Amino acid sequence: MPDPEPSILVVGSTMIDLIAYADVLPEAGQTVVGTGFAMGFGGKGANQAVAAARLGARVAMVNCLGEDSYGADTLRNFEAQGVDATWVRQVPGSSGVAPIWVDAAGMNRIICVPGANDQTSPELAVAAFDAIRPMVVVAQFETPQATTAAVFERARAAGVTTVLNPAPAAPIEGAVIASTDWLVPNEHEFALIGGGTLDGGAAVEDAALRDLADRLGVSLVVTLGERGAAVLARGGRVERVAAPVVRATDTTGAGDAFVGAFAVGLALGWEATDAARLGCAFAADSVTRPGTQSSFAGRESAAGMRERIATRL
User: Cα–Cα distance between 188 and 140 in angstroms, integer?
Assistant: First the structure.
């Protein structure tokens, strides 16, 4: 039997990425000469939506853009990417932007300026959910947590899976975590939201994973960069999923690539470890190219990744 068409609602941010590349990033008060510059479409929500769409999902986006050229360009990009922007609104003010620095090793530093993203309302998100009735709802922390809480509560009541990517790291409001099924931080966000300390890049321990999952009442996936991901479904055991070995050029957007792909796997009804394998494969492939959404595999290549994992089920 062929896989069903996965349906995903992403409630989250859009940003215009302003990416500067340099061999070494500047210290405080220092100026360095860069090696390149690129401008592209980003925002954690938009990135995750595009990743899911590249993998064959039917994706709708909930967001607010500014009444500026960046907002108009973003709407055109959603159309080009096959992401339904019916529930994206333009409001007075500026669209979100994200200045990004990338060093010679491909590691990045990012400043997010939310702009119109902060006006993404609970009413808009709930109306989108009621109209679409998706299989999975995905959210992050670049739009108001009150909005996430409202749509997650509606999803929980309808038996729809919710996925929270707690990034950028911030305290999680009780109303949000109460309706979160899957919490998907990276290892630094994991530590900041209560998972313990990381000493010199030490591995996230199984006991710390279980402790945080039990305390918050969620299933948990922690992304570990080149080391893959650790997966803990509620009532289960910690399982480690390896990432393909690649040569990284730019890690920008890799976490979003994982979350979008993981959501697709869940929407397909796959086990969480298989969904994480798809996430690791899609994210690892993305770091071999520069940029954010521009680094994601095209639809044909992405379909091949999905098929290779599906054949193992």
Answer: 15
Q: Is 256 a catalytic residue?
A: yes
pLDDT tens across 42-93, in order?
999 999 999 999 999 999 999 999 999 999 999 999 999 999 999 999 999 9
Q: Which amino acid is at 157?
A: A
Nearest to 289 by CA among 110, 106, 48: 106
Question: Looking at 181, 250, 256, 274, which residue is catalytic?
Answer: 256
CA distances from 244 to 20, 89, 131, 178, 300 (A): 27, 38, 38, 34, 19
Q: What is the pLDDT of residues 139-168, one digit of tens each?
A: 999 999 999 999 999 999 999 999 999 998
What distance in Å separates the CA atoms of residue 268 and residue 207, rounded to the nearest whole number? 30
Give the E-state strand segments of the chain in sequence order.
7-11, 15-21, 36-42, 58-66, 83-91, 97-102, 108-110, 136-139, 161-164, 182-183, 219-223, 229-232, 239-241
Residue carrying structure tokens 């911030």: 170
For Cα atoms 48, 26, 171, give the angle at the middle one, nearest 5 degrees. 45
| Dihedral sign, Cα of residue 95, residue 98, residue 99, residue 104 | negative
Cα 44–Cα 47–Cα 49 angle in degrees, nearest 5: 110
Backbone angles phi, psi at 39, to 5 degrees: -120, 135
| Calpha distance 101→49 (Å, rounded) | 23
Q: Answer yes or no: pTM beyond 0.85.
A: yes
The identity of residue 2, as a single letter, is P
Count of residues in the chain:
313
HSE-up (13 A, CA, CB side) for residue 34: 9
Do 23 and 104 contact (CB within 8 A), yes or no?
Answer: yes
For residues 180 and 191, give the distance between their C-alpha atoms in angstroms, rounded to a whole number: 18
Contact criterion met (CB below 8 Å) for 162 and 152: yes
Cα(96)–Cα(111) distance, integer angstroms: 11
